[in-house]
Amino acid sequence: MAYDFSLLHSFTINDTYIVMDINSGIVHSLSKEAWDFFKAWEKADGDAREAVTELAEVYDSEELKGIHQEMEVLKQEGMLFSYDEALDKYELPEETVVKALCLHVAHDCNLRCTYCFAGTGNFGSERGLMSLETGKQALEFLFKACGPRKHIEIDYFGGEPLLNFEVVQELVHYGKARAATLGKELKQTLTTNAILLDREKIDFLINEDVYMILSIDGRPNVHNRMRPFSGNKESYPLVHKAIKDYVNQQEGDTYFVRGTYTHHNLDFSEDVKYLIDQGFTQLSLEPVVAAPNEDYALKEEDLQLLGEQYEKLAEMLFEYHCRSKNVTYFHYNITLDKGPCLPKRLTGCGAGHEYLAVSPKGDLYPCHQFMGQEEFKIGNLTQGISNLTIGKGFRKAHVLNKEKCRDCWARFLCSGGCHANAHNFNGNIFEPYRIGCEIQKKRLECAIYLQVKKWEYNSLENIK
Amino acid sequence: MAVKVHIKTLNKEVLTQTLQSGGCGECVTSCQSACKTSCTVSNQSCLKK
Ligand code: SF4
Ligand code: SF4
Predict the structure, then answer these.
(1) What is the per-residue pLDDT for B20?
(2) Which of A51, A239, A402, A455 is the most exposed place for a label (fewest CB within 10 A)?
(3) Predicted structure pTM score
(4) From start to end of A80-222, where are the E strands?
(5) B30 backbone dihedrals φ, ψ, rounded to 5°
């Protein structure tokens, strides 16, 4: 077929007209005339003459023909209707190396977050802390398993990792020293609820270049509702102060403030705004993932409202951009040029082969979300990976092999969603979680829209 | 009178070309779940570029 419009994704947000060429990832911003022509052309199944006739009363025909010519040139240049047969045949290499570990240094927690997938920190089994010895064994496992890869990662995770801070401290030193000896670049991250984040810990984490993921949900009542102490006591004042202290002290954007929004705060753009007003400029708010019977779970009928919120958020971030206020909202920070290569986009999160989670006792799982599920256990630190089938299965579950993803316009931007969500909702890692997909697609449209707006704004500023 | 620009193209790098050139694996991992940093893969940058 000469013109296969399913190779393109077109959408408009607030008078901005966007066409994305799905396979090349090229984004075009259209004038209203060009948009109307494009839509008429699509309706006429690629018959440009018919499209021009259809619009003859609205626009000058010569101008429309000019637009059509521009589109033909883009097509020839591989930036519209692009298709590469290599995609049909492409197989990801089977062999991979482990390059990131999530260390569950504490299966215990000092908060009782309602939506916690870890069942208040213990992942459905007994509470426990990782010993220093197991931690070191995990680091050595990574140094060996990463083979020739230079850049590797460790995330200190929980439960709440600061409940095992002494071990974390030792491991951070150990990891740094060993990485230096072996010539590796080790990135160390710590994900925390900030309850125990005091001056001494902040100093240590900053001095040792540990990246921080700090959890706070937004406005005080929103946060307290979902992230209380046991006995339903509010945690906001402590958390807010600790994060603020950390953010004020660090230099060079070594953190992300992250939160979760639920059915109870569908106006979550207000929470983003609130967090930005607190001086947190690197942030993200994520949709909760929960069983449909929970009162806080997101529902199909919330999607409309959430879509409007994402648009509002894009406008807000654009306004900050115009005022030269530097704010990074994780999901909108999309890289159109110099982004990841296609093999990476097919690899996605790498759970089960590039990325593994280690339990406090040293058992290995495909990722933190599968922690403690016996049927997903793939080995342990002493014997290494004993079940290779699970990792291979995860690697196969990429967008070109999943029916829904293969036809989805967002496939190379999204990379196929979270396997754990797919497994939990549909019992099958090849079947993505629908509400997650809808949110993802809207969020990506808004991210592209924001890029277009910024690009146009910057071009105008340069002319001035 | 200035000619009206009808189509502005934001990026030039054709993704499918990276099928052959890419895959060095040096980039950071990208979990998409809510409890982590939750990166959409596309918002990372490539370490080689
Ligand atoms: S949005 Fe859903 S269907 Fe589309 S690529 Fe992502 S996971 Fe697959
Ligand atoms: S399966 Fe889901 S939770 Fe696990 S690493 Fe991948 S995206 Fe993250």
Answers:
(1) 77
(2) A455
(3) 0.95
(4) 100-104, 106-107, 128-129, 151-157, 185-192, 211-215
(5) -140, 80
Q: Does B1 touch chain A (CB under 8 A)?
A: no
Q: Are strands A255-261 and A211-215 parallel, antiparallel or unpaired?
A: parallel
CB A263 within 8 A of CB A229: no
pLDDT, position A447? 95
- Residue B43 confidence (pLDDT): 60
Ligand nearest to the CA of A445: 1
Max Cα–Cα distance, chain A, nearest Å: 78
Residue type (1 letter), A309: Q
The segments of chain A whose pLDDT lies below 70 read: 1
Going by their DSSP bridges, the two strands A211-215 and A185-192 should be labelled as parallel
ipTM of the complex: 0.89
Ligand nearest to the CA of A348: 2
Res. B45: pLDDT tops 80: no
Can you give the pLDDT at residue B1? 44
| Angle in degrees, CA A73, A74, A78, rounded to 5 | 115
Give the total residue count for chain B.
Answer: 49
Of A33, A288, A344, the CB nearest to B27: A344
